[in-house]
Amino acid sequence: MAHHDATLSPEEIKKAKMKTVIKVTAILAAVTIIEFIFAFAWPDGSSRFILNILFVGMTLLKAGYIIMEFMHLGHEVGPLKFVVLFPMLFLVWLLVALFQEGGAILDAIQNW
Amino acid sequence: MSSTTTLTNPKLSEWDGGQRPMKATYGKLMMWFFLVSDAFTFASLLIAYGVVRFMHPAYEGAYSQFEFATSSDNFYWPIPEKVFNAFPGLHGVDAPLMFVGLMTFILILSSVTMVLAVEAGERKSKAEVEKWMLWTIVGGVTFLGCQAWEWSHFIHGTDEGVIRDGVQIFGANLHVNQYGPQLFADFFFFITGFHGVHVTSGVIINIVIFYNVVMGTYEERGSYEMIEKGGLYWHFVDLVWVFVFTFFYLV
Q1: What is the DSSP code (8-state) at residue A86?
Q2: Does the beta carbon of A103 lie under 8 angstroms from any beta carbon of chain B?
Q3: DSSP code of B164?
Q4: ipTM value of the model?
Q5: Which of A59, B73, B85, B136 has the fewest CB within 10 Å, making it most exposed?
Q6: Could you tell me the pTM of the whole model?
Q7: What digits encode the pLDDT tens for the residues A80-95?
Q8: Are the C-beta atoms of A109 and B56 separated by less than 8 Å?
Q9: For residue B168, what are the β-bridge partners?
Protein backbone atom coordinates (compact mmCIF):
# COMPACT_ATOMS: atom_id res chain seq x y z
CA MET A 1 0.00 0.00 0.00
CA ALA A 2 0.91 3.66 0.04
CA HIS A 3 4.25 4.47 1.56
CA HIS A 4 3.36 6.45 4.59
CA ASP A 5 5.66 7.80 7.18
CA ALA A 6 6.09 5.12 9.83
CA THR A 7 5.74 7.72 12.55
CA LEU A 8 2.12 8.49 11.58
CA SER A 9 -0.66 7.09 13.73
CA PRO A 10 -3.50 5.12 12.06
CA GLU A 11 -5.75 8.12 12.63
CA GLU A 12 -3.34 10.41 10.80
CA ILE A 13 -2.95 7.94 7.93
CA LYS A 14 -6.73 7.82 7.61
CA LYS A 15 -6.87 11.60 7.52
CA ALA A 16 -4.21 11.80 4.80
CA LYS A 17 -6.02 9.22 2.68
CA MET A 18 -9.37 10.94 3.12
CA LYS A 19 -7.77 14.15 1.91
CA THR A 20 -6.62 12.41 -1.29
CA VAL A 21 -10.04 10.83 -1.84
CA ILE A 22 -11.82 14.16 -1.45
CA LYS A 23 -9.32 15.90 -3.74
CA VAL A 24 -9.70 13.29 -6.51
CA THR A 25 -13.49 13.29 -6.18
CA ALA A 26 -13.53 17.07 -6.51
CA ILE A 27 -11.32 16.93 -9.62
CA LEU A 28 -13.46 14.24 -11.29
CA ALA A 29 -16.65 16.17 -10.56
CA ALA A 30 -15.18 19.48 -11.73
CA VAL A 31 -13.87 18.03 -15.01
CA THR A 32 -17.24 16.40 -15.75
CA ILE A 33 -19.03 19.70 -15.11
CA ILE A 34 -16.58 21.52 -17.40
CA GLU A 35 -17.30 18.93 -20.11
CA PHE A 36 -20.99 19.69 -19.75
CA ILE A 37 -20.51 23.42 -19.99
CA PHE A 38 -18.39 22.98 -23.10
CA ALA A 39 -20.95 20.67 -24.70
CA PHE A 40 -23.69 23.29 -24.29
CA ALA A 41 -21.88 26.58 -24.61
CA TRP A 42 -19.81 25.70 -27.68
CA PRO A 43 -20.91 28.15 -30.41
CA ASP A 44 -22.76 26.66 -33.39
CA GLY A 45 -20.35 27.58 -36.15
CA SER A 46 -16.97 26.99 -34.52
CA SER A 47 -14.76 23.97 -34.98
CA ARG A 48 -16.02 20.80 -33.33
CA PHE A 49 -12.57 19.32 -33.93
CA ILE A 50 -11.03 21.54 -31.26
CA LEU A 51 -13.91 20.74 -28.92
CA ASN A 52 -13.39 17.01 -29.44
CA ILE A 53 -9.68 17.31 -28.67
CA LEU A 54 -10.60 19.12 -25.45
CA PHE A 55 -13.04 16.31 -24.58
CA VAL A 56 -10.40 13.65 -25.20
CA GLY A 57 -7.89 15.56 -23.07
CA MET A 58 -10.33 15.88 -20.18
CA THR A 59 -11.26 12.20 -20.46
CA LEU A 60 -7.62 11.15 -20.26
CA LEU A 61 -7.17 13.41 -17.24
CA LYS A 62 -10.11 11.75 -15.49
CA ALA A 63 -8.90 8.29 -16.47
CA GLY A 64 -5.44 9.10 -15.11
CA TYR A 65 -6.81 10.09 -11.71
CA ILE A 66 -9.02 6.99 -11.50
CA ILE A 67 -6.19 4.62 -12.43
CA MET A 68 -3.43 6.26 -10.43
CA GLU A 69 -5.34 7.14 -7.24
CA PHE A 70 -8.54 5.09 -7.00
CA MET A 71 -7.00 1.96 -8.48
CA HIS A 72 -3.79 2.77 -6.70
CA LEU A 73 -1.54 2.04 -9.68
CA GLY A 74 0.42 5.21 -8.98
CA HIS A 75 1.61 3.65 -5.74
CA GLU A 76 2.60 0.27 -7.19
CA VAL A 77 6.18 -0.51 -8.23
CA GLY A 78 7.50 0.57 -11.64
CA PRO A 79 7.35 -2.77 -13.48
CA LEU A 80 3.69 -3.27 -12.61
CA LYS A 81 2.82 0.20 -13.87
CA PHE A 82 4.71 -0.55 -17.08
CA VAL A 83 3.06 -3.94 -17.60
CA VAL A 84 -0.40 -2.38 -17.31
CA LEU A 85 0.13 0.85 -19.21
CA PHE A 86 2.52 -0.12 -22.01
CA PRO A 87 0.08 -2.44 -23.88
CA MET A 88 -2.30 0.51 -24.15
CA LEU A 89 0.11 2.10 -26.64
CA PHE A 90 -1.00 -0.49 -29.19
CA LEU A 91 -4.48 0.98 -28.99
CA VAL A 92 -3.17 4.36 -30.08
CA TRP A 93 -1.92 2.81 -33.29
CA LEU A 94 -5.18 0.89 -33.81
CA LEU A 95 -7.04 4.15 -33.36
CA VAL A 96 -4.96 6.06 -35.89
CA ALA A 97 -5.02 3.25 -38.44
CA LEU A 98 -8.70 2.41 -38.25
CA PHE A 99 -10.00 5.97 -38.19
CA GLN A 100 -8.08 6.61 -41.42
CA GLU A 101 -9.65 3.47 -42.79
CA GLY A 102 -13.17 4.63 -41.88
CA GLY A 103 -12.65 7.91 -43.73
CA ALA A 104 -11.26 6.04 -46.74
CA ILE A 105 -14.31 3.77 -46.86
CA LEU A 106 -16.66 6.79 -46.80
CA ASP A 107 -14.66 8.33 -49.63
CA ALA A 108 -14.88 5.08 -51.62
CA ILE A 109 -18.64 4.83 -51.10
CA GLN A 110 -19.27 8.41 -52.20
CA ASN A 111 -16.84 8.71 -55.10
CA TRP A 112 -16.24 5.33 -56.70
CA MET B 1 -12.60 -26.61 9.80
CA SER B 2 -8.87 -26.96 9.78
CA SER B 3 -7.11 -25.64 6.72
CA THR B 4 -3.50 -25.79 7.79
CA THR B 5 -1.18 -27.31 5.22
CA THR B 6 2.39 -28.24 5.95
CA LEU B 7 4.79 -28.02 3.05
CA THR B 8 7.72 -30.38 2.95
CA ASN B 9 9.69 -27.90 0.86
CA PRO B 10 8.84 -24.35 1.81
CA LYS B 11 8.31 -22.09 -1.24
CA LEU B 12 10.80 -19.29 -1.05
CA SER B 13 11.88 -18.09 -4.47
CA GLU B 14 10.40 -15.28 -6.51
CA TRP B 15 8.08 -17.15 -8.87
CA ASP B 16 7.05 -20.26 -6.92
CA GLY B 17 4.85 -18.30 -4.57
CA GLY B 18 7.41 -17.66 -1.86
CA GLN B 19 7.75 -13.99 -2.64
CA ARG B 20 5.67 -11.38 -4.38
CA PRO B 21 6.80 -10.39 -7.86
CA MET B 22 6.26 -6.67 -8.37
CA LYS B 23 5.33 -6.37 -4.69
CA ALA B 24 1.70 -7.28 -5.34
CA THR B 25 -0.17 -10.39 -4.27
CA TYR B 26 -1.08 -13.06 -6.79
CA GLY B 27 -4.75 -12.11 -6.68
CA LYS B 28 -4.09 -8.44 -7.34
CA LEU B 29 -1.69 -9.17 -10.20
CA MET B 30 -4.18 -11.46 -11.87
CA MET B 31 -6.92 -8.85 -11.48
CA TRP B 32 -4.66 -6.30 -13.18
CA PHE B 33 -3.88 -8.65 -16.06
CA PHE B 34 -7.56 -9.42 -16.51
CA LEU B 35 -8.36 -5.71 -16.53
CA VAL B 36 -5.70 -5.09 -19.20
CA SER B 37 -7.36 -7.70 -21.43
CA ASP B 38 -10.79 -6.27 -20.69
CA ALA B 39 -9.52 -2.80 -21.57
CA PHE B 40 -8.54 -4.15 -24.99
CA THR B 41 -12.04 -5.56 -25.51
CA PHE B 42 -13.73 -2.29 -24.61
CA ALA B 43 -11.25 -0.26 -26.65
CA SER B 44 -11.90 -2.47 -29.68
CA LEU B 45 -15.62 -1.83 -29.40
CA LEU B 46 -15.18 1.93 -29.04
CA ILE B 47 -12.66 2.11 -31.89
CA ALA B 48 -15.00 0.06 -34.09
CA TYR B 49 -17.71 2.59 -33.26
CA GLY B 50 -15.34 5.36 -34.36
CA VAL B 51 -14.56 3.63 -37.67
CA VAL B 52 -18.23 3.14 -38.47
CA ARG B 53 -18.93 6.73 -37.57
CA PHE B 54 -16.26 7.94 -39.98
CA MET B 55 -17.77 5.65 -42.63
CA HIS B 56 -20.97 7.68 -42.53
CA PRO B 57 -21.40 11.30 -43.55
CA ALA B 58 -21.53 13.80 -40.69
CA TYR B 59 -24.45 16.16 -40.10
CA GLU B 60 -23.47 19.46 -41.67
CA GLY B 61 -25.99 22.06 -40.55
CA ALA B 62 -25.94 24.14 -37.37
CA TYR B 63 -26.04 22.03 -34.22
CA SER B 64 -29.11 23.76 -32.82
CA GLN B 65 -31.07 22.99 -36.02
CA PHE B 66 -30.37 19.25 -35.94
CA GLU B 67 -33.07 16.85 -37.12
CA PHE B 68 -32.92 13.10 -37.56
CA ALA B 69 -32.11 12.03 -41.11
CA THR B 70 -35.29 11.79 -43.21
CA SER B 71 -33.90 10.18 -46.35
CA SER B 72 -31.71 7.16 -46.97
CA ASP B 73 -29.92 9.20 -49.67
CA ASN B 74 -28.35 11.37 -47.02
CA PHE B 75 -28.03 9.06 -44.08
CA TYR B 76 -25.87 11.14 -41.74
CA TRP B 77 -24.77 10.08 -38.29
CA PRO B 78 -26.94 11.54 -35.49
CA ILE B 79 -25.60 13.98 -32.90
CA PRO B 80 -25.79 11.97 -29.65
CA GLU B 81 -26.74 15.06 -27.61
CA LYS B 82 -29.92 15.27 -29.64
CA VAL B 83 -30.68 11.57 -29.20
CA PHE B 84 -30.22 11.33 -25.45
CA ASN B 85 -32.12 14.41 -24.40
CA ALA B 86 -34.90 13.00 -22.23
CA PHE B 87 -35.14 12.97 -18.46
CA PRO B 88 -37.49 10.85 -16.33
CA GLY B 89 -40.48 12.91 -15.24
CA LEU B 90 -39.74 15.71 -17.69
CA HIS B 91 -41.70 14.54 -20.68
CA GLY B 92 -41.16 16.59 -23.83
CA VAL B 93 -38.48 18.77 -22.24
CA ASP B 94 -35.23 19.02 -24.19
CA ALA B 95 -32.57 18.17 -21.60
CA PRO B 96 -29.59 17.03 -23.65
CA LEU B 97 -27.23 14.69 -21.82
CA MET B 98 -28.65 15.59 -18.41
CA PHE B 99 -29.63 12.04 -17.58
CA VAL B 100 -26.35 10.57 -18.86
CA GLY B 101 -24.51 13.14 -16.77
CA LEU B 102 -26.47 12.09 -13.71
CA MET B 103 -25.56 8.46 -14.41
CA THR B 104 -21.89 9.45 -14.65
CA PHE B 105 -22.05 11.13 -11.26
CA ILE B 106 -23.78 8.14 -9.69
CA LEU B 107 -21.04 5.81 -10.94
CA ILE B 108 -18.21 8.14 -9.88
CA LEU B 109 -19.79 8.43 -6.41
CA SER B 110 -20.04 4.65 -6.08
CA SER B 111 -16.37 4.50 -7.04
CA VAL B 112 -15.62 6.93 -4.21
CA THR B 113 -17.52 4.86 -1.65
CA MET B 114 -15.54 1.84 -2.88
CA VAL B 115 -12.26 3.65 -2.16
CA LEU B 116 -13.56 4.39 1.30
CA ALA B 117 -14.44 0.71 1.79
CA VAL B 118 -10.90 -0.29 0.77
CA GLU B 119 -9.47 2.30 3.14
CA ALA B 120 -11.65 1.04 5.99
CA GLY B 121 -10.58 -2.51 5.15
CA GLU B 122 -6.94 -1.60 5.61
CA ARG B 123 -7.76 -0.46 9.12
CA LYS B 124 -9.77 -3.69 9.58
CA SER B 125 -12.79 -1.67 10.63
CA LYS B 126 -15.57 -4.14 9.87
CA ALA B 127 -18.49 -1.81 10.54
CA GLU B 128 -17.16 0.89 8.22
CA VAL B 129 -16.40 -1.62 5.45
CA GLU B 130 -20.01 -2.83 5.71
CA LYS B 131 -21.36 0.69 5.46
CA TRP B 132 -19.31 1.71 2.42
CA MET B 133 -19.78 -1.59 0.60
CA LEU B 134 -23.52 -1.20 1.01
CA TRP B 135 -23.42 2.33 -0.46
CA THR B 136 -21.33 1.03 -3.36
CA ILE B 137 -23.92 -1.64 -4.07
CA VAL B 138 -26.72 0.94 -3.88
CA GLY B 139 -24.85 3.14 -6.36
CA GLY B 140 -24.35 0.24 -8.77
CA VAL B 141 -27.99 -0.82 -8.66
CA THR B 142 -29.14 2.78 -9.15
CA PHE B 143 -26.91 3.10 -12.19
CA LEU B 144 -28.37 -0.08 -13.66
CA GLY B 145 -31.88 1.26 -13.06
CA CYS B 146 -30.98 4.45 -14.90
CA GLN B 147 -29.58 2.45 -17.78
CA ALA B 148 -32.77 0.40 -18.01
CA TRP B 149 -34.76 3.63 -18.25
CA GLU B 150 -32.47 4.98 -20.94
CA TRP B 151 -32.69 1.79 -23.00
CA SER B 152 -36.45 1.82 -22.69
CA HIS B 153 -36.59 5.42 -23.90
CA PHE B 154 -34.20 4.71 -26.77
CA ILE B 155 -36.22 1.70 -27.87
CA HIS B 156 -39.59 3.47 -27.71
CA GLY B 157 -38.40 6.67 -29.38
CA THR B 158 -39.85 10.17 -29.47
CA ASP B 159 -43.55 11.01 -29.67
CA GLU B 160 -43.37 12.22 -33.27
CA GLY B 161 -40.98 9.54 -34.46
CA VAL B 162 -39.43 10.38 -37.81
CA ILE B 163 -40.69 10.02 -41.38
CA ARG B 164 -37.94 8.50 -43.50
CA ASP B 165 -38.49 7.80 -47.18
CA GLY B 166 -42.21 8.25 -46.49
CA VAL B 167 -42.35 5.65 -43.72
CA GLN B 168 -42.92 6.65 -40.13
CA ILE B 169 -40.47 5.11 -37.66
CA PHE B 170 -40.56 5.19 -33.89
CA GLY B 171 -37.55 4.39 -31.73
CA ALA B 172 -34.83 1.92 -32.45
CA ASN B 173 -34.14 -1.78 -32.36
CA LEU B 174 -31.92 -4.12 -34.35
CA HIS B 175 -34.05 -3.67 -37.51
CA VAL B 176 -35.00 -0.01 -37.65
CA ASN B 177 -33.55 3.13 -36.12
CA GLN B 178 -35.37 6.43 -35.98
CA TYR B 179 -32.22 8.33 -34.99
CA GLY B 180 -30.06 7.56 -38.02
CA PRO B 181 -28.02 4.74 -39.54
CA GLN B 182 -28.87 1.29 -38.21
CA LEU B 183 -25.34 0.73 -36.91
CA PHE B 184 -25.75 3.62 -34.48
CA ALA B 185 -28.45 1.68 -32.63
CA ASP B 186 -26.51 -1.58 -32.88
CA PHE B 187 -23.42 -0.01 -31.30
CA PHE B 188 -25.53 1.65 -28.62
CA PHE B 189 -27.01 -1.68 -27.60
CA PHE B 190 -23.68 -3.48 -27.79
CA ILE B 191 -21.40 -0.99 -26.06
CA THR B 192 -23.70 0.21 -23.28
CA GLY B 193 -25.01 -3.35 -22.97
CA PHE B 194 -21.52 -4.80 -22.59
CA HIS B 195 -20.73 -2.15 -20.00
CA GLY B 196 -24.03 -2.86 -18.25
CA VAL B 197 -23.11 -6.55 -18.01
CA HIS B 198 -19.86 -5.52 -16.36
CA VAL B 199 -21.72 -3.33 -13.89
CA THR B 200 -24.11 -6.19 -13.17
CA SER B 201 -21.31 -8.66 -12.47
CA GLY B 202 -19.56 -5.96 -10.42
CA VAL B 203 -22.66 -5.55 -8.28
CA ILE B 204 -22.85 -9.32 -7.80
CA ILE B 205 -19.15 -9.45 -6.81
CA ASN B 206 -19.75 -6.58 -4.39
CA ILE B 207 -22.75 -8.35 -2.87
CA VAL B 208 -20.68 -11.53 -2.36
CA ILE B 209 -17.91 -9.47 -0.75
CA PHE B 210 -20.43 -7.64 1.44
CA TYR B 211 -21.86 -11.00 2.55
CA ASN B 212 -18.37 -12.23 3.43
CA VAL B 213 -17.63 -9.06 5.37
CA VAL B 214 -20.81 -9.46 7.39
CA MET B 215 -20.10 -13.15 8.01
CA GLY B 216 -16.64 -12.25 9.25
CA THR B 217 -14.77 -14.25 6.59
CA TYR B 218 -12.10 -11.60 6.10
CA GLU B 219 -11.89 -10.95 9.83
CA GLU B 220 -10.99 -14.61 10.26
CA ARG B 221 -8.56 -14.50 7.34
CA GLY B 222 -6.86 -11.53 8.96
CA SER B 223 -6.87 -9.49 5.75
CA TYR B 224 -9.44 -7.40 3.92
CA GLU B 225 -7.50 -7.56 0.64
CA MET B 226 -10.51 -9.01 -1.16
CA ILE B 227 -12.16 -5.57 -0.90
CA GLU B 228 -9.19 -4.15 -2.78
CA LYS B 229 -9.43 -6.74 -5.57
CA GLY B 230 -13.18 -6.24 -5.93
CA GLY B 231 -12.46 -2.52 -5.81
CA LEU B 232 -10.07 -2.73 -8.76
CA TYR B 233 -12.81 -4.31 -10.85
CA TRP B 234 -15.37 -1.76 -9.72
CA HIS B 235 -13.12 1.22 -10.49
CA PHE B 236 -12.41 -0.28 -13.90
CA VAL B 237 -16.13 -0.30 -14.67
CA ASP B 238 -16.21 3.39 -13.75
CA LEU B 239 -13.12 4.02 -15.86
CA VAL B 240 -14.74 2.42 -18.91
CA TRP B 241 -17.85 4.53 -18.40
CA VAL B 242 -15.73 7.69 -18.47
CA PHE B 243 -14.61 6.68 -21.97
CA VAL B 244 -18.08 5.57 -23.09
CA PHE B 245 -19.49 8.88 -21.84
CA THR B 246 -17.01 10.88 -23.90
CA PHE B 247 -16.85 8.85 -27.08
CA PHE B 248 -20.45 7.76 -27.33
CA TYR B 249 -22.35 10.68 -25.86
CA LEU B 250 -20.17 13.81 -26.03
CA VAL B 251 -18.01 13.66 -29.17
Answers
A1: T
A2: yes
A3: E
A4: 0.86
A5: B73
A6: 0.88
A7: 999 999 999 999 899 8
A8: no
A9: B163
